[in-house]
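Justification of resources, computational component.

The compute hours requested in this renewal are based largely on the per-chain cost of generating structure records like the one below. Each record pairs the submitted sequence with a full structure-token output. That output is archived, and it is also reused by downstream analysis tasks.
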Amino acid sequence: MGQTTLDDDELFDEAASEMRDDVEDSLTKAREALPESDTIWNADADNTLGVLNGLRSALDTDDAAAHLTDAKKWYTMGKRADAFEDPDDLEEQIATLDAVFEDIEDAHEQVSDLASTVPELRGALDDAHEAAETDESDADDADAEADADAEEAEAAD
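The structure output for this chain reads:
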């Protein structure tokens, strides 16, 4: 019976070690899948909308988020099983990455909003300028008509 208990303890220790490795591996993969800072800093586009769409794409974190979710999953399992000798460092790493993801998600949302707003704003500005040109043209026509009427009235006198 003593041998079985020892084997169970050894198996548990081995499983706990593998679980910690899985958490650390997932955290590493999540960090590696994050966008590079130059990718979000440098832009190669012909216009504002191109810049915004490029930035929005650069802020896509699907793969990194999946790895972070895996890390959280294995961490939660290990913590509940009391499998980790020192879970605090893993918890801190997860919290740090969570904060980075929140910042990226906020930026992605703001960029997406701008990418939707800028074309609408451009259309509104074009419409406003066209209306101003139409008003100016109408004013010029009215001035010309008034001048013609004044000349006609002078000629009649």
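The chain is about 85% helix and 0% strand. The mean pLDDT is 87.
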